[in-house]
Amino acid sequence: MSDTSQTKVTLLAGGVGGAKMAEGLAALPDVALSVIGNVADDDSFHGLWVSPDIDTLTYSLADVIDRQQGWGVADEGHRALETLKTLGADTWMSLGDRDFGLHIYRTQRRLKGDRPSDITCDVARAFGVSAEILLPTDDQVQTRVRADAGWLSFQEYFVRERCAPDVRELSFDGITQAKPTPEALAAIISADLIVIAPSNPLVSIAPILGIPGIGEAVQSARAPKVAVSPFIAGKVVKGPADRMMAALGERADAVGVAQRYRDVMDALFIDHVDAALAPEIQTIGPTPICSAILMRDLKDKTRMAREIVDFHHDHARKGAAA
Ligand code: GDP
Ligand code: CA
Fold first, then answer.
1. Atom of ligand 1 at shortest distance to CA of 240?
2. Nearest residue CA, atom 6 of ligand 1?
3. pLDDT number for residue 315
4. pLDDT band at 322 (very low <50, low <70, confident <90, very high)
5. Is 199 close to ligand 1, i.e. is its CB under 6 Å away?
6. Could you tell me if the CB of 224 is within 6 A of ligand 1?
7. 216-237 burial, b if ≥16 CB within 10 A, otherwise e?
């Protein structure tokens, strides 16, 4: 980690889109990677504390992820959930048997009073992950979604209702009182490069940047900041970000992303098909960079990561020459 020939990259990441970027960066031998994940999707099921975005990062970087789904563990069974169903429990949240093991472990350690950050770090090590997985806060922050029928927890909206209701309002319960972790702040301040993954800007990145102190640290960090658009041709690869952005009156395309991140970003990777949006993005502030930003396999992820790190080196060289 302290190898001076390595570029210290700090990635802000949600679940599936975030994990793709994390895997690409983790595959580069000249990168020392710290990932700051999203805890605002966390919720309690069957008495267990579940942390979907953090677990997607861990399982992806450990290469035990279910590649077809992009989340959950590969070679998974659902016998525990069958038992819960027999017993009359609500089982709309799909939790596999292997996955349950991690939730039991996390819950037990939380009940003992261990810091969520320490638990996350120990889980990642035990799974053989060499990148650092950091929490932006050890406090509880939970996304809630207001639909026409009322407020829903994030998982009720995302999993139970399959993102069908129109989103009228978002709230991140607990965020104003949440304290940033020293590890996340240190990773931001000491980074050579900060990357915002192509994650959902509204419910994955916003609850990270919105923790008091985190957004400010990113803004004032010395490192160049690069984001990757989760939108390609005005559509998301997966998930509700396009409908959410539109419903909340924001542009559901790379321009909307540029507007959201304008204070915390120097450059924005957009897809070749969105090249026509480049002048508008430039006007907002960040330098648009056209590339192929769809990451289907490890080759795509690694290439994308290489381009981002090379952009940083060019940036640093130009800065030194100026
Ligand atoms: P979640 O927490 O599992 O919903 O995942 P994230 O918030 O990290 O990522 C969701 C976003 O990832 C969606 O808006 C997708 O458009 C985006 N995404 C997924 N795969 C890709 C990809 O290969 N390339 C890009 N540019 N975006 C992607
Ligand atoms: Ca998520």
1. 14
2. 199
3. 74
4. low
5. yes
6. no
7. bbbeebebbbbbbbbbbebebb
